[in-house]
Structure formats: structure tokens, C-alpha cells
Amino acid sequence: MTDTAQFIDMILFIVLPYVAMATFFLVSIYRYLGRAFTYSSVSSQLLENKQHFWGLVPFHYGILVVLAGHVIAFLFPRELLLFNRVSLRLYILETTALVFGLLALIGLVSLILRRITEPKIRVVTTPMDWVLFVLLFVQVIAGVGIAVFYPWGSSWFAAAMTPYLWSLVKLQPDIQFVSGLSFWVKLHVVNAFVLIGLLPFTRLVHVLVAPNPYLWRRPQVVRWYRKPGGELAESKTGRS
Amino acid sequence: MNVRSQVSMVFHLDKCIGCHTCSLACKNVWTDRRGAEYMWWNNVETKPGTGYPSRWEDQDRFAGGWEKKNGRIELKSTGKGKIIFNIFHNLHMPSMDDYYEPWTYDFQHLFNAPEGPDQPTARPISMVTGDHIDIESGPNWDDDLGGSPVYAKNDPNLEGLSELERSQLAEIERLVFFYFPRICNHCLNPGCVAACPSGALYKRGEDGIVLVDQKRCRAWRACIAACPYKKVFYNWASGKSEKCILCFPRLETGQAPACFHSCVGRIRYLGVLLYDASKIDEVANLPREQLVDAQREMILDPHDPDVIAAARANGIHDSVIESALKSPVYKFVKQWKLALPPHIEFRTLPMLFYVPPMSPVMAARNGDGDTVNHVSRDFFHDIDDARVPLQFLANLLSAGQTGKVRYALRKQRAVRIYRRAKTVGDVGEEEAAEMLKQADTTAEEAEAIYKLTSLCTFDDRFVIPPMHREEAIEMLDDPHERRTAAGFGFVDQPKRGA
Lengths: 240, 498
Hints:
Chain A is mostly helical. Chain A has a single domain, classed as Up-down Bundle (Fumarate Reductase Cytochrome B subunit), CATH 1.20.950. Helix content of chain A is 67%, strand content 1%. In chain A, helix 2 packs across helix 7 (153-169) and helix 4 runs antiparallel to helix 6. Chain A starts with a helix and ends in a 17-residue tail after the last strand. The model of chain A is unreliable at 229-240 (pLDDT under 50). With 498 residues, chain B is of the alpha+beta class. Chain B has a domain at 57-93 and 184-243: Alpha-Beta Plaits (2-Layer Sandwich), CATH 3.30.70. In chain B, strand 3 and strand 4 (72-75) form a beta hairpin. The longest helix of chain B has 22 residues, at 402-423. The N and C termini of chain B lie far apart (48 Å). Classes of the chains: A mainly alpha (240), B alpha+beta (498).
């Protein structure tokens, strides 16, 4: 390997990931504390209600399932490899991943078309939305392409990507696992880090405030200035 | 007993002249902003009519409010189980087409148009896109029965009415309608609050005002579908939900809300009700026909020493209890039983009540056009024969029970006749007294109703409790810190997120 190639790999697979993670954490937290008002999914369903369904629903189900797959492979590589030893299971896993990847792709394309064709939606589209669309499109296309042309990803991810990612986490970056991978896989990895780094600057921040407390809270929310003791407080009580 | 106080409202429909002054006062104060142009936190509808957004009362379409399932109430549109299915795309949310596309006019063209054979015109321009549009509907498109074959005919409240009654409503030259002004009802069991995945909506403990925490709203849109009255709106520019705030900055400084203050017909009353919050769950779960009575039952008598003691124990300030004693809303709703909750069958327990309107006598009965038959042997025949059928009013104001509406209308009629006997004198005193008796009222009560209805001053109509905001937590902040901020509740600019 030439020095230049090695240098580029170092920039892309060591420097970029750390820069991306640093911006992700610092900017997200800063934005949450300083500009909480901007944390929103900025839905446009009010302005256009039909294509919205055919874009948002497939995209979200697709991308969530695929992302969950990546996280599982990252956290439980050994268990995944054991699971994949039965080839039927491997086929089922791979097909599921591909189907949901395609679902995400269909949804994304439909969303991009919606942004272009609906005059009302164009009004609420920012330049950053277009940057996001390009990055997401590259990411999903690369992902689906990998699933088709470099199959059995659920196994080789666990063998190659997981050790690389853990080496980053452990602050002992080791790029020997990734430097030999094909262009498409590298593109997918690099683009993923770019997306993570840019996330706090985009509407994607809504992912960080996904509403889990809803599942546990009581139906009614009441806020008080003063509790019976006279102390000033903000609190929540149920219907009681 | 868990006593809480609620700033509650009564709208006296018999006095509403449909001038829309309330709507404009509200629009000018609160929703004259980008993204909020289409919102009318206060709007006035013509009934029969489909309202704004069109057919909002049709919960098969919009799935607002609660429904009984397996003996428990659940939100019709969403819930803990359903959230994963409707968070990406809300199936029941109205789109802008259900409201209307806000527009202005190209007035500049009147000045800038090149010289030509025709007068220049000011074409309508969409306030969303800035393009020329054809106006297809507006916020009060069916005002005064405009387009009634399309709108009035499709009013969901016509359900259960006979063909005769329906045709009666639309008889040529004898058309009948009344106005129905609407704001947020600041419910006791609000669907919007229960639906919010982020917990951004809340009810203020001290006065019961329902608000959206703009910093916590993430545009999941569940509130918009869950409110059966469609009084939570989505600001498409800021990406946040907004709703009527009952002008709390005005209330906190002792002023009536803008729509109340500006009301030309003086139809609006505002005052404190004390209620038993421990009963909310139980009452909201009762069978449909018990709801009106049960909600009245929840409202507590502020004269009762036990209630006062329990209120004090709950931290309700003496000045608020004092205000509850003078509340006009308590009189209309609880003492006189004249005011009724709108669509209580949605089970959100609304705290805005309506006095049903009197209407002309059914045309088919007095075909000669002579309806000035004040007293016949059957004193109240014209209530059941009114041209706005009782069933229609009952569908709107008492979950379909005509008895509640009839009671309120009979009492109003008795008060009128009683006053007529006193002032005009063409009705005998005994007949008036007999009517009062039949309408379950007394001369003193009739006098009080008459005074609060016809001679009410500003201070009679708006009994605003001291809010004691001087003790509130924000008051600990230095106001100068907010000098360049953008209004209530924002230290940072309310700027749309990228």
C-alpha cells in the first residue's frame, strides 16, 4: 500500500470518526441546552398529507430495522456469527435486511420527489435538508448495493467492522480491518461518519428526542407553580 | 376530595350576533405570524354548518377524543400501543385542505400595473407559497349559511333528526341558524395532553389553562388528532403545535382574554370553578347519558365550608376561593343549569359551557307567520316546536339528551315572560309566576338571570382570580435578562430548527 493511500485511510477511518463523534456529542448537547426550541422533527404533514404516508412510513420502518441490525452486529458479534452458522438462518437474515433496506430506499426516493414536486413543501425545505437528502441517499444506495453485491454482510460485518469499531471505542484505532475493504463498503462507512457528525446540525436531531417517556407516564400532565407546602416547583401528577 | 380551581367560561349563544370581533381580536394578538396564518384559536361558526376545520365534529374521520373500550376510556386516535404506528404518519390529522390555504391579495398590482384597456385587479396570493391561487374555502366559508346545500346539510349534529326537521332548517325564506363561537375548552381530561408523546402539553395546576411547552414540542402531531374540537394547531413554519392560551399573560395581570374583552354582544363570561379532581377518571368513564350531570356534580359549591377547607388544604389561595364565590360561570352552570358542555360525549370534560340559543317557532306550525303568541295554555309549546330542533341543540350541547336543553330553554323563556310581565305588561303576573314555577325557577332567580344576562357589566362578566404570579418561579429571574428575547417563554429565538 502506498503512503498516500495509507494517509487517506488514516484521515477517513481514524480522524474523521473522532471528529464526527466529537461534533455529534458537543453540538447536540449545546443545541439541547442553548436552543431547545429547534429540537423538532419539523413535520410537514399538515401541508401535504398523501405522499407523506408513502414516503415517511416505508423510510422509517426500513431504516429503523436496518439500523437495529447494525447495532446488534456491533454489540453481539459472536452471538450473531453463531446464529449465522445455520445457513437457512443466514439467508433469512440477509433477505430481511435487504427488504428493509429497499423499503428505506423507496421511502427516501418518494420523500425526495415529494420535496421537489410539492410547492408547499418546497417552502419549508432548507439547504440543509438537501444536504441531508444527498447524504442519506448515498448511504442507503451504498447499503443496498453492498447487500446485493457483497452478500453475507451480517457475518463479515461481525468479523471485520465490529473489531474496527471497537478499536475506535477503545481509543486504540486499528484500520487494518477496514483498509482492505471494497470502495462501496468504505463509502458506506465514511458517509456514515459524515452523517453522524452533521446530525446535530440537521432536523435529524429528532432521533435524539424520540419519545420514550410516553410509554411510562400517566395520561394527564399537570404543572404547578406552587406545591401545597408553598414551595415553588414544576412537577407532574396523573389524574389524581 | 382533591379540590382544584379552574378558570372556566360560559358563552351565551342567545346573545351572539356572529360579528367575528372575537376572532379578529385573537388573530391580531396571537396568530398574525408566519405559519400561524391559517389558525383561528377563536372562530365563530354558523350552525347548522360544518365548521372549521370542515366537519371537525365527525370523529369517524378525525378520531378525536376518547372512546370507551373494555370499560375503560382510550384515546381514539393514539395510545401507548398505537404510537409506533402513527408517529411517522398520523392517519387522522387534518391537512391544510381541511382548514383552508391562507391568502392575501396582490395589492401592489393595483398601483404598478401597466396602462391598459382593463382595470387592474388584486389577485389572491397564497400566504404559504406566495403563488397566485384560486380561493376554494376560508375559515368561515359557510358563514350565515353560505353554501348551505353543501355545508349546513352535512352538519354532523343533524344525526337522528327527522326528515321534517331537516327540511325545516332549510326552508326557503324561513332559514334558521345560530352562531357557535369556539375557543379551546381547557378540558379537565384533555385528549391533547394525554396524546403528546413528548409530554409537551400540560394543564396548569393553579388555573387549569392547557398549554403547549414550545421547547418540548417535537412536532409528533398527536395532539392535533387527539383534540376532538380541533383546537390544537400545527405551525408549519416553526414546526411546533400551538393553541389558545386563554390569554394567560392578560389573565395574570387581571385583564379578560382578548376575545372576551372585545365581545360586542357581551356573550362571554369568565370565572373560577372549584372542582373535585379525584373524580375526573370516574366521570370520564360514565355512560354517555350521565356525563352532563356527573360533570356538574364534580363542580363544587364554594360556599360549602368543607369545600373551602379542602381547597385551603390543597393550597388554593383565599383570594381564589373568594373569586369562586362571585363566579358568573358557577351561577350559569351549577346554580341555574342554563349552560351546557359542548359534545361532552367526546369525554374530555370541557370547561367552556354554552347557554343554548332561543330560536323562532317552527314555520310549519304557525304557517300564517304569526308567532307572537307569547302565552297560550301550553306555555312552552314553542320550545319543542322551535325551528332549530331540540335534538340538534342536544346533539351539540348535551350528548343528545333533549331534556337538558329543554330545561335551559324553558328557564330562559320563563325569565323573558317574567320580565315582559313587569315591563311591558301585556302578560299577566299570575301567568308569569306560573311559568316560572313550571320552568323550575323563582322570581329572585329570574331576576338574577335577567341581570347577569342583560345588564351585566364588565366586572359581572369577568371575575378574574388573582393569579399570584408575583410568587411564580419566573419572577425570580431578572427581567432585564430577557430584554432582547422574543416574548413570553423564550430566552432563545423561536426559530425553526434545520
